[in-house]
Design brief:
The protein has about 270 residues and is α+β, with helices and mostly antiparallel strands. Helices cover about 35% and strands about 15% of the residues.
Amino acid sequence: SGGGGEAGGGAAELRRWVRKADAELAEAAAGVGSGATTSGASDPAPNPAAPPASAVAAEKPTAAAPPPPDVSKVRHEWYQTQSHVVVSVLARNVPPDAAAVSFADAAADVAIELGPDAGTYRLALSLFARVRPDGCSFRVMPAKLELKLEKLVPGKWERLEGDGTGGATAFNTAAASDTAPRTVYSGSRRDWDAIDREVTRAEEEEKPEGEEALNKLFQQIYGNASEETRRAMNKSFQTSGGTVLSTNWSEVKEKDYEKERTAPDGQEWKKWG
């Protein structure tokens, strides 16, 4: 019976270990199942109706390239300084490699490829006077192509184009003769010098009368007088209260007209201030 009890105890122990192992296996199986479920939930299933990413990127609008300029609408303009002539070809968005420019002693040639649909713009300039080809240059800008031509002889050109034999004149000068009439605005040919002379002559011939004639006489005497005569006239007239006008400075400089002056009948002198 003792052996049977021992055997029974061993069987019980074995069953306990089997149950423990089953429980651990079941727990492990449950953990694996939970992880698989979580992983499956975090990765959504692909939507067969959604377009691929490459297709979405292809559908995004792109900025349209600016249209090439129309050859018939391209124009040029120019201005000059003492030493250079600057020509601007007004064509927008010209790639730098689409422009070809050459310079000669009295010429400049421009060719601009505006695109397969727009064609080629050409400008051949026969210049008014000669330039220095090695001193000429050009540059392409967003709104235009600019030529800078160095004049062989500094000065002002009458125009841009010619046969290359034109001469240069100085800036800001105009040929004027001593007999040319003055003008007050552009285009006026009125002889203002003659008008001035006529007014002066009329004033001299005018015959003033009375007090006006006396004042004019005094003005003429004072205007033509020496410095001493003017001092005599000023002192005698002012210190006498306007009753004496002398041109003799040797007499006036020693005389005190304030003490000698007398008031008209019925009046008396008074000092103010």
